[in-house]
Amino acid sequence: MSREADIASEQAYFDAAAKHRDRRRDDLRQLPSAAAHTGAAAHLRRYAETARRALGSAGEAVAFGRVDAETGETRYVGRHLIRDADGGVLVVNWHAPAAAGWFEATPDNPAGVRRKRAFTCTGNTIEDITDTIMAEIAEAVDAQLLAELTRGRTGSMRDIVATIQAAQFALIRAPRDQVLVIEGGPGTGKSAVALHRVSWLLFQHRADMAAADVLVVGPHPTFVRYIGQVLPALGDEGVELRDVGRLAPDVPRGRTERDAVARIKGAARMAGLLARALDARIGAPDPAERLLVGGRFVTLPGVEVAEALAAARAAALPYAGRRQLLRDRLAALVAARTGVDPAGADAVGNLVERLWPQQNPTGFLRDLLGSTARLRAAAADEFTSAEVAALHRRGADRLSRETWSAADLSLLDELAYLIDGPGRRYAHVVVDEAQDLSPMQLRAVARRSATGSLTVVGDLAQSTGSWARDSWDEVLAHLPTGHPARITPLRYGYRVPRQAYATAVPLLSVAAPGTAPVEVVRDGPAETGVHRVGLAELAGRAVTVAREHAEAGRFVGVVCPPRQRRPVEAALAANGMTWSSADRGELGGAVNLISPQEAKGLEFDAVVVVEPEEIVASDERGHRLLYVALTRTTGYLDIVCTGDPVPLDAPARPRPPVDDEPDAAFTRREAHRLAEHLAGQLRGAAPPAFWDDILTQVRATLRPTDPVSSGPADAVSPGQPQAAVSPGQPADD
Ligand SMILES: Nc1ncnc2c1ncn2[C@@H]1O[C@H](COP(=O)(O)OP(=O)(O)OP(=O)(O)O)[C@@H](O)[C@H]1O
After folding, report:
1. CB-based pocket (< 6 A), ligand 1
2. For 484-499, what is the HEC assignment?
C-alpha cells in the first residue's frame, strides 16, 4: 500500500472512532434526564461528567499510536478508551495493560511486537505516520520522539504520553506501595514521569484512590504552575498541586534571613524544640483553685487539678485535644461538687486558659522566636547558645504585621500539627526537587502521607541551598518507612541538546564528583554562544541576545544572579521589551527573567545565562547552581559574562559557621555582662576624668582604621554592646 493510501485508510479508522466517541458523548449528555428522581439525576450527572472527561476533548486525535503484534493482532493506543456501539474496543487507553506493548517494545526487546506506527496529527486529522519495524532497525531511532523534543516550549509542561520511553514506562507503572525515588540528570524526564505515574496509579487503583487523594509537591509556585496542565491533559482533574511553602498555614511571606539561620530552622531537632516550647506553656495549679460557678464559689483542691492536668498531658492527642480533655475533667470536678454541669462557665474557661493557654501557630512562633529565655529553655542541650541566639529575633509590633521566612513556614506547619493534629492526608504523595528540602520540610511532606506510598523526584547533582544533599539516605531518613524505598535512575537526557550539555558537563567534576553525566539523545540547533563583555555592557548584551531569540519566536529564559537583576530589568525596559518574572510567579512571556534557584525544573527554547561567576559565588554549592542554569535549554544556550563562562575554579560561597556570626554568637545579654565587667575594671583603675579618653583609645586600639571619635557616646560602635553606655538597660527579652 502506498503511503497516501496508508494514511487514508488510517484516517477512515480515526474518523469512525471519533464518531463513536461523539455518540458516547451524546449518550452521556442525555443520561441525567433518564433518572427517576432528582437524587438519581445528581448521581448520574456526576457519573456522566467523569465519564465525559475520560473521553477526552472532542477535537483531539483518537490515538497516537498503533501496535501490530507478531500474531497479526492490531491495537490503537490513545489517551482515552473508545468503544464501538457493541462495546468492542476501537482504541485502548494508554494506562491499560493492552497498551503496554507500545511503551515496552524496543528493538533490543520487541516483546512480541512486529511494528509500532506513530501518528502525527492536527486535531483528529493524520498528517504523517512513522513506522518502526522491530526486526529491521538496529537501534532506537524514534522519529516521533525527536519531533516531540524539538517542538517549541511554552510556559506549560506538556504530557509525553505518546512518546514515553521503555525505562520511563517501567517507573510509571511501578507498584504503588513503595517510596520510589526517581533520580537522574537534568531533562531525563523525572518530573514528567512522576506526573504520568500519578495518572497511571489513579487508573489502576480507581476503586480506592481518587484524584483528590493525591498530592504533588513542587519546589516553588512557578514550577507548580508550569506542571499544572499535565494531569488535566491526561484526564485527571482534581489532583492537589502545591509548592512546599504552601503546605504551611496561609501567612504573609517574604522575610529574608541568613542561610545559617535557615539551616538551623530546617534541622529535624527543631521539631523537639517546638514540642518542648509548647509543653512549657502548660502551667501548674495553685494549692487550691477557687472558682465562681453559677453564683457559688467552688474550691478545687490543687492535687485534683494537678491529676486532671497530668491525665491531659499523658493523653495521646495534640495540644488542643489535650486542652479540651483538661477542660472536660475540670468541668467534671466542678459538677461533682455542685451537682451542676458548668459547661460554658467562664471560671472553668479561665482556669483552663491559665493552665493550658490556647495557642495558634503564628502567635506561638512569634512569641517563641522573640524570647531568648523561652528558646533557651526549649533548646535543652540540643542547640548551642550561638544557635539559640541566631534563632532569636524581635517580632513585629503586631502579629498581623509579622512576615515569615521560607524556613519559618515549615515551623508553622509543624506547630499546626502539634497544636491541632494531622490535617489532610493523601493516599499517594509526589515530591519533586526533593534533594533540596530541609528535614523540617520533609517532615511536612511525610505527615501528609496516609500510607507511606510516595514518589520522590530529584537529582543530587542539582542539590543546592541551605540543605544541599549528597545522598538520598539524608532525604529518606525523614520520610515514612512503612514501605520499602527504591532508588531508580533515568539515564537519557531528553531536554538538553548535545552542544549545551557539553558546555555544562565539566561542572559535574566539581559540583558532584562521581555523578555520571546523562546520555544526550539529540543534537541542538547551534553551538553554545559565549559573549565576553565589560561589566558596563553585561546587562545590555544579555538583553540583545534574549531579544534576538524572542524575535525568532523562541520562548526565552534569562537566568540572572540577584546582583544583575536590576541592570537587566533596566536594559529590558530601555529596549521597550516586556518580560515575565518568575519571582512574581509569572512564566510564559516571550522573555522570562528567573533566578538560578527559580530555574530548577523549568525549561526554555533558548536560555541566556548571565555572569556565571556570580552564580557560582552565590551559593555554597554554586557550581551545582550553574549546572542547573546551563541545563534549562531545549535548543539554544548563550552565556554572557565578564569572566570565565564556565568557572570551574571560582570559589562557591563558603557556609558561615554560626559561631562566626557576631549577632548569633554574642547576645545582647552577654554584651551587657561584658560591658559591666569592663566598666568595673575602669572604675577601679582610673579616675572618672580619664574614662572618656581611655574608652576612645580602646576603640582606636580595637579598630585602628576607624576615625577616632571624641565623645564618650561614640566610644561604642554600632553593633557593639550598647549596654556599655547604658548599663541599666534590661538585657534581651
Ligand atoms: N519520553 C519523552 N517524550 C517526549 N518528551 C520527553 C520525554 N521524556 C522527557 N521529555 C521532555 O524532556 C523535558 C524534560 O523533562 P522533565 O522536566 O520531566 O525532566 P527532569 O528530569 O525533571 O529535569 P530537571 O532535573 O532538569 O528538572 C520535558 O520537556 C519533557 O517533556
Report:
1. 145, 148-149, 158, 160, 163-165, 168, 184, 186-192, 459, 462, 494-495, 601, 603, 631
2. CEEEEEECEECCCCHH
